[in-house]
Design goal:
Layout (H helix, E strand, L loop, with lengths): L10 E4 L1 H5 L8 H12 L3 E5 L19 E4 L4 E4 L4 E5 L4 H15 L4 E7 L2 E5 L14 E2 L12 E6 L7 H9 L4 E3 L7 E4 L5 H10 L8 E5 L5 H6 L2 E5 L4 H6 L2 E3 L6 H13 L8
Parallel strand pairs: 1-2, 1-12, 2-3, 7-8, 12-13, 13-14
Antiparallel strand pairs: 3-4, 4-5, 6-7, 6-9, 9-11, 10-11
């Protein structure tokens, strides 16, 4: 671990599920207050999440100032209040089809069930089983290729093969250099984005457009899909409930999502910005 930060960040990038959100998926009153106070102190806070655009509506009141979130593991930048996609880095149908064929060839057609997230919403194969409610009217077909839109943010993969703790790594080995496989901690779910698309790549572009250097960014996360973002940021925090690889990679730790760890990080950033702790910002 490094010594405590001595200057305030210009930007705090935080994951949502397992990080900023409590175990029941809500924003605590303390964290909500900390988000407001950080914005008042001039600190940008951006949510960087695996969630698709449709899962961010309930959080619109907590996105301050700029009003955007980086979602779908970096495949889209969303104006949360309106639901408008400001930028996207989705996969074309031919790439999604090629990835799907490669997985089916490796694991067997009968064992692979796919779904897709896009700006248009959720689409899925008939045998794909979602752990979350499927929006009414979502397109469905025997093959995902038949219900794809022009741009797919994430290809979701479930399999009836024997469960494995190394599922994401096994899927990545099958997909190879066609795309990026992310592990957001959702059990038995593989999440695939286009080549080079990660939380870090889109966050870096967003920050650069605002003249913010990595050294002026703090990032907070809990799962393996946060590793790229944590590695890019000048200062990184792992919540106490984080995956072991995240705990090992982050430069600092904070309390768990159940104990408002992100609020602690935001309060520290605000104290430094206000000069309470001698910030040199």
């Amino acid at each position: 671990m490094t010594s405590a930060p001595t200057r305030a960040p210009r930007l705090v990038a935080t994951d949502l599920d397992g990080t900023l959100l409590r175990p029941d998926g809500t924003v605590s009153s303390r964290t909500a207050d900390a988000l407001v106070r950080a914005a008042e102190a001039g600190i940008e806070v951006v949510f960087v999440t695996a969630r698709p655009p449709r899962w961010l509506r309930e959080l619109r009141s907590h996105v301050a100032g700029h009003g955007v979130a980086i979602c779908a593991n970096g495949a889209a930048v969303l104006e949360v209040g309106s639901g408008r996609v400001l930028a996207e880095r989705g996969m074309p149908p031919d790439l999604v089809g090629g990835i799907a064929d490669r997985i089916r060839d490796a694991w067997g057609l009968e064992h692979v069930h796919l779904a897709a997230e896009s700006a248009d919403g959720f689409a899925h194969e008939t045998d794909f089983r979602s752990l979350h409610p499927v929006p009414p009217g979502s397109p469905t077909a025997d093959r995902i290729e038949d219900v794809l839109g022009a741009s797919t943010f994430k290809l979701l993969v479930r399999t009836t093969r024997p469960p494995s703790d190394a599922y994401a790594d096994e899927l990545a080995a099958v997909v190879g250099d066609l795309a990026i496989v992310s592990d957001s901690g959702a059990e038995g779910l593989g999440e695939i984005s286009g080549p080079g698309i990660t939380k870090a790549s889109t966050l870096a572009d967003w920050a650069a457009a605002r003249g913010i250097d990595p050294a002026d960014v703090w990032a907070v996360g809990d799962a393996r899909n946060d590793l790229s973002m944590l590695g890019w940021a000048g200062t990184s925090f792992a919540v106490a409930n984080a995956h072991a690889t995240v705990l090992a990679a982050a430069t600092r730790r904070c309390a768990s999502n159940a104990d408002d760890g992100v609020a602690d990080v935001l309060d520290l950033a605000r104290a430094l910005a206000d000069g309470v702790l001698g910030s040199s910002r």
